[in-house]
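Section 5.1 Outputs to date
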Amino acid sequence: MTKIGMLTIGQSPRDDIIPPLKEILGPDHETLEAGALDDVTREEIDDLEFRPDDYLLVSRLRDGAEVKIHKRFILPHLQKRIHELEKKGATLTVIMCTGKFPPFHSQGLVVTPQEILKGVLEATLKNGKLAVVYPAEEQTHKAEGDFGRNGITVYADHLSPYEEKNELEQLAERLKEQDPALIFLNCFGYSPRVKTIIAERTGKPVIHSNVVVARVLKELAN
């Protein structure tokens, strides 16, 4: 049985996103869960200092609270967890975040979803408007650089993965007004409900990061 490391940039367990991934992977694979912030206190996170050029990331603590961190803080913690997961037998580890990451040192495979998802977007939409939904408003300025290309107009919006229902409804209405050809939920934290509501309100195809990456993991693990 293949052991797959599921590594969140926040704290584990992530009962909000792991069960749907395990359902896709099926019973033939064992999942080992870990969080980059598992041994980091809330006080340490609150004391983080941000520079103007910091790469912002959004995740969740085990108590359900949303936190904002930066990549230079999280990278050594991710590397540590990768080694720990591999010591437990993981031969394949996925970083459960759609942000951009450098290569990690590892014995097995480490999947960083952004490259997979960008490939799907580029293979799917050749011309037209792409709507990208980020977990934080401060991240939306990256949309053009991350996803812009010839023939593609990028519209960026935001929604906390731990949103209130009315905020989700408002987002769906804004997306409907923008009339994009394709909508991309650019965060692992979005629930299936977010995709369902946006797809129903807009009538547009929606790419849910979790589902796409889980299907790739299943292929790699077989």
